[in-house]
Amino acid sequence: MDRIAEFQNVINKLVQEQNFKRSPEALYAPIDYVMSQGGKRLRPMLTLLACDIFGGNIQNAFYPALAIEVFHNFTLVHDDIMDKAPMRRGLETVYKKWNSDIAILSGDTMFAMAYQFAVKTDPSLIPDILDVFSKTAIEVCEGQQLDMDFEQLETVTIEDYLQMITLKTAVLLGASLKIGALTAYADKKAVEEMYQFGINLGIAFQLQDDLLDVYGQEEKFGKKTGGDIAANKKTYLYLKARQLANEDQSTTLKELYSNSAIDTELKIKKVTEIFNELNIKEEVSKVMSDYYKMSISHLEQSSADPAKLSLLKLFADTLYNRNH
Fold first, then answer.
1. Computed from CA positions of residues 282, 284, 288, 291, in that sequence, does the dihedral angle turn out positive or negative?
2. What's the pLDDT tens digit per position in 199-209?
3. CB 190 within 8 A of CB 72
4. Phi and psi for 41 in degrees, rounded to 5?
């Protein structure tokens, strides 16, 4: 794991080297606040790892990786406004610490910054990188819109939900790996295998996130558990529960998700009790495992150095088995 620690240091150093403390202060202070929080830096790490396993010049991947990290944080700033989320990574969200107007404008600036960083690489790589980056940015927005649409829809299928998280979460992991492979001039098939590895890993990652929202420890997860239930989000857990529930359980779930007057803590408690009765945690864990196995099968079909591929698999294992 030394190589991973080395890449993590590279990303953190690169973030620290950027001048986010600019004028006007009201615009840039939130950006500096978000980017200095650290976080897992998973996506830029995957970009550097993908470049490395194909024997690329890591410096070609530095700024595209930074672009992905800035873009990811931009999406969180805007998501927190839409979700009215007060906490992120154990700290106040930008919209809560400042206000929604500032959070929107600071997020917009981060989006533009991400493009500035994305083109700081070998000029021959720029068209392909921008193509992946722009396509992914649009898909992430599509996923967020679907997520919001689902809150108003009575009928959402599990297939609908998987499509939504593919767009909202998984495509960015796939793009992180794809851009990393592109910066190493990997062949077309290898680039696609990296992308599919990321897509399937991303779906497993989001399902794990859904589980942690209900069953995670708040001090490790960095935000209040039960947030998805409180916000009436139709996660895989909820949809699977509706699928497996008897008539009484189904009616109770429907009422809990439509009654805005009920105490939030009581609502979380009652929904979680039904999830437990239906063994939803185990059900979701099985699906997670299937997507994780699919991700590894794409990784194993790659033409990259097997020794370096094993490092990426080890990193994927760490993501899959995380508790925060």
1. positive
2. 999 999 999 99
3. no
4. 55, 35
Alpha-carbon span 40 to 72, nearest angstrom: 11
120, two tokens: 């700081």
The answer to whether the CB of 161 falls within 8 A of the CB of 197 is no
Task: Quote the tokens at residue 164.
Answer: 């939504």
Q: What is the pTM of this model?
A: 0.92
The answer to whether the beta carbons of residues 102 and 24 sit under 8 Å apart is no
What's the residue count for the chain? Answer: 324
**Phi, psi at 92, each rounded to 5°:** -60, 140
Burial (CB < 10 A; 0-12, 13-18, 19+), residue 266, is: exposed
- 219 has a pLDDT exceeding 70: no
The whole-angstrom distance between residue 22's C-alpha and the CA centroid of its chain comes to 28
Give 320's pLDDT tier (boundaries 50, 70, 90): confident
Query: pLDDT tens digit string along 48-81?
Result: 999 999 999 999 999 999 999 999 999 999 999 9
- CA gyration radius, the chain: 20
Confidence at residue 154, expressed as pLDDT on a 0 to 100 scale: 84
Tokens coding 22: 């600019």
